Protein: SDR family oxidoreductase
Amino acid sequence: MMLEGKTAIITGAARGIGLACAERFVKEGAKVVLADVMDDEGEAAAKRLSESGGHVCYRACDVTDKSQVEALIAFTRETYGRVDCVIANAGIVHTSDILELEEADFDRVIAVNLKGVFLTGQAAARAMRDQAPDADGSRGTIINMSSLNAVVAIPAITPYVIAKGGVNQWTKCLGIRMAPEAVRVNAIGPGSINTEMFQTVADDPAKMHAVLSRTPMERPGEPDEIAKVAVFLASHYSSYMTGQTVYPDGGRMGLNYVVPVRENAG
Structure:
């Protein structure tokens, strides 16, 4: 198992990609702290994973609140002794025409998707800096959940696009800063993934066709496909990577034209 004996924190872990990461990390031998603001779903997920044999617990955390983020890190260190990996995954999206976008909606998306990633990464980096290296010489890994939309703009979700672009730059900055401390920082920029957030697209044939027409693999990705990338970035197999954003997107970013979609695709 690639993460045997490691301890991981995953924010936004009650559902979607965050939950898939938790499930995959447990399979790879990690102890996992699920963090979210959706307590019922988070606690249910932790209970299910624990009953399947995993070392899993749930901790409520609003990533826009510095004190809650710091308490999450402290709780994990007190419970498991160290923090080997933190996945800053919590995120939201708001759809609006740019000219009608309300300031409060803009601020909320930036607070969760950018400030939350900053606060999580800063607190994690401080904790990792102060702990002893593991057998591979690593003090820890931080994985930020970005998006293909960090580099491919969609005006209807402008605050999300801006935030994810910031996440990519934050990943570079923190990765450079923490390299001498033996802490690696990388990001994942998924394309269209079959999550609850994607459901409104999946349920609309026209929207789904638009997604598939610019995805060479002609299908959305699955949450576990992103989780497997996270396992790689958390493991010693990515030991020479830091400050990078990896894009599991079905080939979408490299495409500069629309592909014909077969009737049975997707």
Observations:
- The chain has a mean pLDDT of 96.
- The chain has eight helices and seven strands.
- Helices lie at 16-27, 39-51, 66-80, 103-129, 158-178, 199-202, 205-213, 223-234.
- The chain has one domain: 7-194+222-246.
